[in-house]
Amino acid sequence: MKKCTSSMVQLDGYHLTIDEVAAIAREFHQIELAPEAIQKVRQSRAMVEDMVTNQQVVYGITTGFGKFSDVVIPREDVSQLQENLIISHACGMGEPYPTEVVRAMMALRINALAKGFSGIREETLLLLKEMCNRGVHPIIPQQGSLGASGDLAPLAHMVLVMLGRGEAEWKGTRMSGKEALQAAGLAPIRLEAKEGLALINGTQAMTALLCLAVADGHALIENADVIASMTIEALHGIPKAFDPQLHVVRPHPGQQESARKLLAHLQGSERTTAQGEIRVQDAYSLRCIPQVHGATRDTWAYVHAAVTRECNSVTDNPILFSETGDVISGGNFHGQPMALAADFLAIAIAELANISERRIERLVNPQLSGLPGFLTEKGGLHSGFMITQYVAASIVSENKVLCHPASVDSIPSSANQEDHVSMGTTAARKLRTVISNAVKVLAIEYLAAAQAIDFGKGKLGAGTQKAYATIRQVIPPLTEDREMHLDMHQAEKLLASGNLVP
């Protein structure tokens, strides 16, 4: 993935990348608005002002919301309508989102509004930008979004703070929204026509979760290939199965890439074997790594493209077209594209853990490995890696439950006006859990592969040597039983920190 190298990210609504979202979210990169974006925001705002002045009947501007879309709101109540919208819709439940997710949501909403199709005032958009830049992070509960009509409840909690309401975190302290704004040198605003709807009618909660999941998923895929290569060496596997000739005749891009990476990691290894030297074929969990890991790569590429498009999309309603003067009510807030993407990626990432657990079993089972049972020299007195495989199996089973797709569910809402919803935010939330679980399983394989390598002799491959050296810098070989959870957590941190082999 392309990395964000500048500490300032300019948003114009069209060119935001997933890496830039991750940098804003995790590295606190600052946001600025492109001059052309500000001009477009002013143009769409002028449309709203004209509609209010002329008392046009337009959804969400001079009417109620959802089932109340046929209720016309008097001109003197238009501002109160927007504030009521935020107050009434801020009804999320559950634990709050981590700060990185909140920051990603804010950045994505700013970018969507910067396209100039939403009718928000410039000063309102600038307040949201400055909240993100100065570290005023609204407390946003994780539960409550149906993923159609956008992420209404989560985004309403974000906007509460802009009104001096709700709660926010500032410099590590949780306080009222009003106090957080004051501490950062900012003042609350009063929303005007269309602004409340413009701020909360969008897919930014699910897309924020997906952006971070896509970033994390990429590193996990790369690490899965090098860890699998270590297991191949530990079990004297046959790299001929990764020969380019084989993968050209089934030319899935991900499969070819994983095969290429495996050969690169194993280059120069003295631990692998030729066909027929020990066995004619390896088990599927070794031989079919390119096909399994590669399919995950292809899924990731599809999701990366879909999420990138969503990062730069207009997802509210109605949408204002200043060039034609049209105001169109549609369904761009519907999260189905992200819901399917999240479910798809969760299934693909879970398979990395699924096949990894099978390789762990081959490492610890002496009937399959030819190594000491459970990778300990004093089996019986010591249990070695016995229970690490239990843990991996437990986590893999949990992922299988989580991979039931949220996107196939729909519960009608708003008196059946909103009669099909995406559940995309639920899909994206559980995707993050699946990725976290997969990291844990790969961390266990990493530990076990390094331990198995210690029982053998011979030079390691170019990539596997680097990965082996990395883990041995912080985790020594297991010579007698110790609290394995400490090693497992340390290995998990290594994987979570980025690519083992840059």
From TrEMBL:
GO molecular function, one term: histidine ammonia-lyase activity
Protein name, UniProt field: Histidine ammonia-lyase
Modified sites of kind 2,3-didehydroalanine (Ser): S149
Enzyme class, first EC level, given as a word: lyase
Family of this protein: Belongs to the PAL/histidase family.
CDD domains associated with the record: PAL-HAL
PANTHER family referenced in this protein's UniProt entry, alphabetically: HISTIDINE AMMONIA-LYASE
PTM description: Contains an active site 4-methylidene-imidazol-5-one (MIO), which is formed autocatalytically by cyclization and dehydration of residues Ala-Ser-Gly.
Lineage: Bacteria, Bacillati, Bacillota, Bacilli, Bacillales
Record gene name: hutH
Catalyses which reaction(s): L-histidine = trans-urocanate + NH4(+)
Pathway: Amino-acid degradation; L-histidine degradation into L-glutamate; N-formimidoyl-L-glutamate from L-histidine: step 1/3
Keywords (A to Z) from UniProt: Cytoplasm, Histidine metabolism, Lyase
InterPro entries, sorted: Aromatic_Lyase, Fumarase/histidase_N, HutH, L-Aspartase-like, Phe/His_NH3-lyase_AS
Annotated compartments: Cytoplasm
Natural source organism: Brevibacillus ruminantium
Cross-link 5-imidazolinone (Ala-Gly), where in sequence: A148-G150
Enzyme Commission number: 4.3.1.3
